[in-house]
Amino acid sequence: MRFLFFLIPFIFAANHNYGQYLNPYNSDSYMGGGLGINWINGAPHYSFRMFPEFSISKVGIGLDLRIDFTSDGRIRSENFNEFSDYLSMIRYVRYGQKHDPLYIRLGALDYATLGHGSVLYLYNNSPSLDSRKTGLAFDADFNEYGFESVYGNFGSSGLIGGRIYLRPLKFTSLTEIPIIGSIEIGATLVTDTDENAGITSGMFVDSLFVATRKESNPTVVGFDFGLPVLRSDLADLEFYVEYAKIINFGGGASIGALFGFKGFSLLKLHARIERRFNGNKYIPSYFNALYEIERFALQNDKKTFTSKLSALNRAKAGSGYFGELAGDWLGILKITGSFSKNDGMNDGILHLQAVFNSENFPYLFRAGYDKGGIGKLSDFFGADERSFVFAEAGYKFQRYFLFSVFYSWTFEPVRNRLNEIKGYKPQRRIEPRISFIYPIGNGN
What we know:
The protein is mainly beta. Helices cover 6% and strands 53% of the residues. It has one domain (4-439). The chain contains four helices and 26 strands. The protein has a 22-stranded antiparallel β-sheet, with helices on one face. A two-stranded antiparallel sheet has the order 12-13. 39% of the residues are buried. Mean pLDDT is 88; it is low at 2-19.
């Protein structure tokens, strides 16, 4: 797992989720704010934003105050209609970075992963700008052993899990032996305590959905073994094996390899390939980027629902593959992509991110795309109920001032008459915006 130190800068440097902003400066601390016109599902709103970030040593704080006004001057109701909306104005408070000896992050969890990701991979706890959640990531690495943990939502029951790992030869003199000295063994446990996570059957009564069958909520255990083969200033190589079991359902195994290249600070590359062997009623990386949407969703217009546990019951045994590629050119252009799919199934999952950002160039760009349910070539394209999309292109027309256009395809909560969230439906936003961004601590 030490190999993943190399991958983390790719993921986190490009880790702008759907509500963040372009920052044209290399400063980790800045004051930011902006105005815009925000079309939400075709309806115009006037938007006001404050998004300062502060970083002192290992401590970082990010705020995100967003207010949308309707065309008649009222505050949009979904901005502040539950306690979590107020809490989420503190976007994050963190200590350290992922894979530091100590890492703590409270707030939005954009792309959380445990281990190599066979149980939890790129999990996003806030798929909706209208129902942002506050979670926790807490990791510690004591060299010989350590742990990673995730808690999805302090506002209600939800996802909770962790991974513990051991480097057994670090306790002995064998730690100096190449290859075997850094062998790592890990165990993962993740469960979802949300009341809707176990629903597999139900009906509508007076427009209210009533669950008629609930199975045990999904709980996944996993075990992994990593063997670093090469460690150098130029390249890294690691092989790994994993096994995961969904309690009361099926299990599966995977074997994979990770390769990293560090080209003298000019170009960094990361590649990963994995072959998967799945049993009946098993879905690898069950808790993924789309999980909060897939867990349970009502389609009131059709009087139907979907749930991930129902999909799990239908999953058939077979093989699959997973691939990941990331690149960083001079810290200016960062691209990350991954794709997984089971042979002969329409269950492909695509993840793409790109960031172009330079203090010395007036144009900036960031984009991200997550898509599930891919079976054929045409499924790669087009946003639907299985997609997240965001893109922003900007131009620095004056010092500290940025004009940009932001587009997102995310989700808005579907509430029943008791104001309970019972799923999500797609939401499209288009926002031309003007932002003021003043860097702190870099001489400007």
